[in-house]
Amino acid sequence: EVHLVESGGGLVKPGGSLRLSCATSGFSFSDYSISWVRQAPGKGLDWVSSISNSSSYTYYADSVKGRFTISRDNARNSLYLQMSSLRAEDTAVYYCTTLKLGITPDYWGQGTLVTVSS
Amino acid sequence: DVVMTQSPLSLPVTLGQPASISCRSSQRLVYSDGNTYLNWFQQRPGQSPRRLIYKVSNRDSGVPDRFSGSGSGTDFTLKISRVEAEDVGIYYCMQGTHWPPTFGQGTKLEIK
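YS: structure for the whole thing
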């Protein structure tokens, strides 16, 4: 069975930092590009960042570029998101997902809530 | 970025009746490989999103056949032939043809 389990969310002050983790199992993690998608309270889905299967390529939404860093450890089947200079508008549930476009099955975690507030 | 516009944003439906959600993109979604990367997601209350449809019309494993997707170019539709109580939630279209991937605003389906 496939599992993606996010952790690391919490309450942080504006300007602060937080590191999210996504532990995965049940699929061949090292074969997949992986993404972070966030959802502000009561709002829709927004793509945040993606990383290729071998970490050769990383991509970021303009809204987080220069502040967030995506990384992965294929030996640990884990994905990370280092977030710094956090703003109130970064408040959201952050999902780890394979975000697949074709026939390959698509997987999502249960999400972790990040709240940026003083 | 490609803008995805869904309508309606709220969809009250009687149990057993059909439902239809429209999704329009600001650019054509045909990729250079000939595929159209348009997904539909369902998000039930309190749950994570779940992909229902990929490449316009292909149902994911385990998705009931009352769900169907269609469309081409910039206009796409998700149809539910007979709405059941478990279909309550928010439905999102998403395009993956143009970088970055973008989602529609979501359509909230509720039982009338």
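YS: worth flagging: The mean pLDDT of chain A is 96.
IM: good catch. Also The beta strands of chain A are 3-7, 10-12, 18-25, 34-39, 45-51, 58-60, 68-73, 78-83, 92-97, 112-116.
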